[in-house]
């Protein structure tokens, strides 16, 4: 069996990769488990050395890695370069901070000595998506490896070259054999890996469907799971906002990664007093974006990753228009090869349309006019998703309302939502559970162990739970 990498700009086959047999997959799990027995006892200084070396290699190989990502999934070359740089930063962040994050914490009890220790769990499985083929993996791997776990990566089948390149980076950085391994396997093989007793937990970034399937298996086997799923993030603009900055940021927030980002702004909720001005400037700015070959430095929007993603997105747009939405820009599949889709803007939307309730994974923006902050919050929360949110206002009272009342894993005020190694990242509702990044991220896959030594004399006979 093979996996085939296809260039989404041309539709041409790039390369075929041999997938692992069941026996090879079992051998990889065995290596990861065996390596864990010694890797868990390595020092933070040793692990930091390997992670810092991985960061060096990412920077040294930036151009080739960026071109690989662009060729396999279609992101613009400059955005791919930035992604590789961000991976280096997350490696260095956890190399520097992991020991402090996992330092033994003294506790005050009746015992002679009590403390809390943070110990590694074992082999952790990562099921990762194609849209940020390096960043999604490194933001999982850096804290997980620094915590003393070993890792198995099941990457998306359309970015096999990126998956292989990541394993090469960790190997060349000097990590022990078996500490990080790529499994070139299909989605149907994930359940068997997760059910293996040697695999102790799973982290998944992906679709709702994948999240339900993998979290169900994790629940059935009583294993910890972290789920980062889809999003339909609101971008709220109130009258006190800097309108020029809000428009500029809105365009960037909707078209980042060709619009294929879980935390991309997708629903634009604009106060009625400024709606017309925002809409006209936003549409004009979206019209100026250049669509084309992602390798070309002048391109703003490259192709979508697969034909299916493009076709599904176009079907959502057609559904909205057929049910009364007004198409302000785009909405037509370009002629020629590849999976391009233009910047598209819709208004006059209603709950009967798919775009109202579904995630739009591509450069399609939905505009909504709101009367006040109460309607903004109600509409922002009227979704099963809750990944992130962005609100634009210079009114302190409105800012506090948004922080308190928006149902999301993050709220960014007067800025675009981004993931940052220094902040926890994750969602609520159908956007998943658990947190990556920050101190919270490294605590997801450790055993938080209570330690008690001896007992105070007056309580030595007490034996209650």
Kindly describe this structure.
This protein is an alpha/beta fold and 465 residues long. The protein has helices at 22-39, 44-60, 62-73, 77-101, 135-146, 160-172, 190-195, 208-220, 243-255, 275-287, 307-322, 354-357, 373-381, 396-405, 438-442, and strands spanning 2-6, 13-18, 105-106, 113-120, 123-127, 150-154, 180-182, 199-205, 225-228, 233-237, 265-271, 326-329, 344-347, 364-370, 389-392, 411-413, 432-433, 446-453. The chain has 2 domains: 2-224 and 445-451, 3-Layer(aba) Sandwich (Aldehyde Dehydrogenase, Chain A, domain 1), CATH 3.40.605.10; 233-413, 3-Layer(aba) Sandwich (Aldehyde Dehydrogenase, Chain A, domain 2).
SSE topology sketch:
Layout: E1 2-6, E2 13-18, H1 22-39, H2 44-60, H3 62-73, H4 77-101, E3 105-106, E4 113-120, E5 123-127, H5 135-146, E6 150-154, H6 160-172, E7 180-182, H7 190-195, E8 199-205, H8 208-220, E9 225-228, E10 233-237, H9 243-255, E11 265-271, H10 275-287, H11 307-322, E12 326-329, E13 344-347, H12 354-357, E14 364-370, H13 373-381, E15 389-392, H14 396-405, E16 411-413, E17 432-433, H15 438-442, E18 446-453
Parallel strand pairs: 5-6, 5-8, 6-7, 8-9, 10-11, 10-15, 11-14, 13-14, 15-16
Antiparallel strand pairs: 1-2, 3-4, 4-18, 9-17, 12-13
Keywords:
2 domains, Aldehyde Dehydrogenase, Chain A, domain 2, alpha/beta, 465 residues, Aldehyde Dehydrogenase, Chain A, domain 1, seven-stranded mixed β-sheet
């Amino acid at each position: 069996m093979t996996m085939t990498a296809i260039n989404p700009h041309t539709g041409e086959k790039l390369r075929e990769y041999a997938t692992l047999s069941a026996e090879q997959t079992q051998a990889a799990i065995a290596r990861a488990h065996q390596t864990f027995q010694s890797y868990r006892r390595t020092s933070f200084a040793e692990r930091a050395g390997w992670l810092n070396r991985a960061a060096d290699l990412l920077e040294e190989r930036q151009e080739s890695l960026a071109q690989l990502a662009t060729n396999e999934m279609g992101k613009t070359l400059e955005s791919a370069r930035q992604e590789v740089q961000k991976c280096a930063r997350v490696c260095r962040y956890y190399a520097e901070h992991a020991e402090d994050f996992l330092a033994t914490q003294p506790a005050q009890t009746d015992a002679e000595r009590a403390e809390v220790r943070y110990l590694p769990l074992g082999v952790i499985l990562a099921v990762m998506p194609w849209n940020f083929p390096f960043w999604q993996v490194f933001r999982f791997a850096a804290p997980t490896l620094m915590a003393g776990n070993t890792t198995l990566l099941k990457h998306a089948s359309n970015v096999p070259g990126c998956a292989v390149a990541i394993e090469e980076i960790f190997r060349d950085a000097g990590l022990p054999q078996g500490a990080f391994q790529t499994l070139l396997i299909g989605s149907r093989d994930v359940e068997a890996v997760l059910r293996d007793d040697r695999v102790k937990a799973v982290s998944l970034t992906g679709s709702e469907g994948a999240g339900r399937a993998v979290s169900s298996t994790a629940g059935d086997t009583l294993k910890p799971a972290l789920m980062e799923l889809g999003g339909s993030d609101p971008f709220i603009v109130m009258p006190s906002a800097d309108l020029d900055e809000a428009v500029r940021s809105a365009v960037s927030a909707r078209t980042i990664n060709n619009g294929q980002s879980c935390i991309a702004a997708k629903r634009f909720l604009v106060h009625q007093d400024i709606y017309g001005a925002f809409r006209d400037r936003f549409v004009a700015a979206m019209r100026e974006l250049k669509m084309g070959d992602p390798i070309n430095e002048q391109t703003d929007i490259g192709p979508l990753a697969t034909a299916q993603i493009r076709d599904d997105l176009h079907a959502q747009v057609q559904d909205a228009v057929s049910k009364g939405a007004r198409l302000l820009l785009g909405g037509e599949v370009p002629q020629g090869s590849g999976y391009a889709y233009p910047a598209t803007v819709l208004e006059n939307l209603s709950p009967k349309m798919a775009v109202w309730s579904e995630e739009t994974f591509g450069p399609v923006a939905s505009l909504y006019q709101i009367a006040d902050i109460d309607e903004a919050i109600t509409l922002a929360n009227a979704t099963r998703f809750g990944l992130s949110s962005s609100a634009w206002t210079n009114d302190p009272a409105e800012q506090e309302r948004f922080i308190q009342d928006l149902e999301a894993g993050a709220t960014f005020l007067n800025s675009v939502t981004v993931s940052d190694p220094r902040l926890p990242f994750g969602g609520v509702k159908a956007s998943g559970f658990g947190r990556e990044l920050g101190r919270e991220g490294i605590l997801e896959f450790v055993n938080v162990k209570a330690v008690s030594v001896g007992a105070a004399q007056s309580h030595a006979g007490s034996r209650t739970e």
